[in-house]
Amino acid sequence: METMVQDLRYGVRQLRKNPGFTLIAVLTLGLGIAVNTTMFSLVSAFLLRRPPGREPERVAVITGVDPAQGFQADASPVSVPNYLAWREANHIFVEMAAADEYRTVSLTWQSQAEALRSAAVSANYFSLLGVAPQLGRSFQVGDDLPGQEHVVMLSHELWDRRFGSDPSAVGGTIRLNREDYTVIGVMPASFRLLGFTPQLWTPLVLAPADQTAAARRDRSLYLFARLKPGVTIEEARAEMVVLARRAEESFAETEKGWGAEVRTLPDFLIYVFSIRSALAVMMTSVAFVLMIACANVAGLLLARAAGRRKELAIRCALGAGRLRVIRQLLTEGLLIAVLGGSTGLLLAYWGIQLLRSGMTFNAAISTISFRLDWRVLLFAAGLSLVCAVLCSLAPSLSASRTDVTTNLKDESRTASAGISHTRLRTVMVTGEIALALFLLVGSGLLFHGLFVIEHQNLGFQADHLLTASLTLDKARYPDASRQTLFVREAISRLQHLPGAEVAAAASDLPATGPGSVTLRIQGQADSPTNQGLSALDFVVTPDYFRTAGISLRHGRTFTEADDPSAPPVVLVNQEFVARYLHDQEPLGKRVRLEVNGGAAGWSEIVGVVGNVKSYSESTRDDPEVYEPFLQRPVPSFSLMVRATSDPSILASALRSTVAQIDVELPLARVMSMPGVIASQREGNPLFLQVLGCFALLALMLAAIGIYGLIAYSVGQRTHEIGIRIALGARSQDVLRMVLAEGMKMAAVGGAVGLVLALPLPKLFGAIFFDLHVSEPRVYFIVPICILLVAMLATYLPARRAAQLDPMNALRQE
């Protein structure tokens, strides 16, 4: 301990003796640690924080596996009949609960109506998770029976925002969907499931119609189950696969190809939130930045150790062993790492504040709290220790091998530090260049992939389009005729608004990720390849295609005559014709859609429209089918109005028009279609900005490394360069010699980086769903940029070398 204290004191004196060196080393490490700590705060918030409740690792989430391959096809909801059957037939769960997480309700409070996200859950949902309300009680047996279901639990955020955190709200009455509900409890602010952000919960009531064979087409439930003691998640998965296969055998018409997947609750939340891939890319990027920073500091320590050769030789001559010298130098590296870690924590605090201000682009993200918690502090401390080893181990080992006799006899102040020192620093700087090029290529590929997404043709005209979503409640709109009457009246009034061209209604807005439907095509063989055909499903009013600006390619669109009394008809897109009809004549073909509440028979294809991207961030064209709203009304839909100018001008008129028809019917997400698309892409700019900053920081650090190495090399070779000039070497010759040294490192590092970056397109394609990042030009542009930066970093010390006065250089000996 006494020796350690001596080493620490001596290290502090050495660092105070060289303030410039200390400042550069600490700031370099501080930057590397800061970006890593900032990114790890996201990892801690999203991936490492335990979900609320009792033993969340023992809670399993059961989802369906959609035979139609798509984004997260193995995390699809399941039907009510499967929930009831699996709840009774399994032998591995203590109990099972169900939740319909994506409902919308109308809350009327103090004469103000508001559309809210809600979840309908079984009575044992909260008890299964092991969470208790902050106020009141949770659901109990009997609350989910018809006639007793008018009870509601509020989220802490809703209780605070609409009820002023008034405890008397519990036991009071509120109106949901025009019906009175009793507030029985308020959940604590800590109850947040990643990606699921309902503002209130109501009981899940299962009617007899939900338990029929036809109800198997309606898949809307996520199943939560608690494992029995000693049962593993693998055993649970195996049993659910068997139960899913049994359902497929018994109900082949609706369950053909469907399977079941089981994950623990923490794994499921991370999977469906789809942030693991982005965090993995960013953490890899900052790890590379830290490696470059450590290489720079290690290069500084190598140069410093070379300048202390005589001191170390004297220490060895006085009896210091090699291990003693290594420990002393490691202690100095540890001090630098501790100072760098402290600086990094300060910078990370500011970085987290800056990052938090940019992560408010949707409700799910904004509810996540990330900060300098104990995990982040522990990570920063561990990272500082790792940096101490990475930065000082190689210089310590190299310096400890000093030749005592040679160094004691050497009176030169500028002699070379030795081939091993130079070679080691060269390897480090070459590695920095390789890592910087790798990061820049990766960033360039992602930039290009997202640029293609941002500027692609979505297949419709989003400009001048105003949208709003709403849900018709069962109290006033219990059947299809009432729903159709409301839609007709609303569209009629909207079309007569000043500044409006045409209006329509649709179950889903274009390019917003609509639901899919399985189908069959009449006349095609009932084979495994034909079984399980699927397409994106839209239910639209006649003027939808004109309102959205979707082109008609063949046949006709819907008319007012396509009502319930007319034969069922559908429209399909070009991709549907190419993929499922093999470019045969589509008009007159008949398809049967497997939708709950849809036509039981066959529908005739009467028209073909252009392809519309299924999602604004997708580059694929998927098969699409359109049904007439008059033949299959849906209670939840979006209104669309095409304006003659800025669509936001019509927003207040749209609200007042709906209020004139039904004052208790709130509109949600009243915004222009470009605004809807921008909201889907709001995370992309932040992701690219952060990744771009990391890549540029890596390039800057690599340039500093090149400059430092070449400048040090020129300083060590001052006498040699003076002799060259004295013997007749021109300034241009010296300039070329030093430039060649730097460009050689840049070329070797660039070549290594290019080899490392070659698999990146395939890697990104596997990590990010439907992201095409193949862009060969990046592999030419980035190396050229690296060479230019390396040339600039090398030119400054090279110019200084070329301007040396040979007389002064020779006198330095």
Derived from helix and strand composition plus strand pairing, the structural class reads alpha+beta
| Cα-atom radius of gyration | 34 Å
Question: How would you state the average pLDDT, rounded?
Answer: 85
Count every beta strand, where a strand is a DSSP E run of 2 or more residues.
Answer: 22
Largest sheet: 6 strands, mixed, barrel
In what order do the strands lie side by side in the largest sheet? 3-4-9-6-8-7
Distance N to C terminus: 43 Å
Low-confidence stretches: 411-417
Give a nutshell description of this structure.
The chain is α+β, with helices and mostly antiparallel strands and 813 residues long. A 6-stranded mixed beta barrel has the order 3-4-9-6-8-7. Strands 14-15-20-17-19-18 form a 6-stranded mixed β-barrel. It has a 4-stranded antiparallel β-sheet with strand order 13-21-12-22.
Characterise the protein shown here.
It contains 26 helices and 22 strands. By secondary structure, the protein is α+β, with helices and mostly antiparallel strands. The strands form 3 sheets. It has a 6-stranded mixed barrel with strand order 3-4-9-6-8-7. A 6-stranded mixed β-barrel has the order 14-15-20-17-19-18. It is elongated, with a radius of gyration of 34 Å. The two termini are 43 Å apart.
Task: Record keyword descriptors for this entry.
single chain, 813 residues, alpha+beta, six-stranded mixed β-barrel, 50% helix
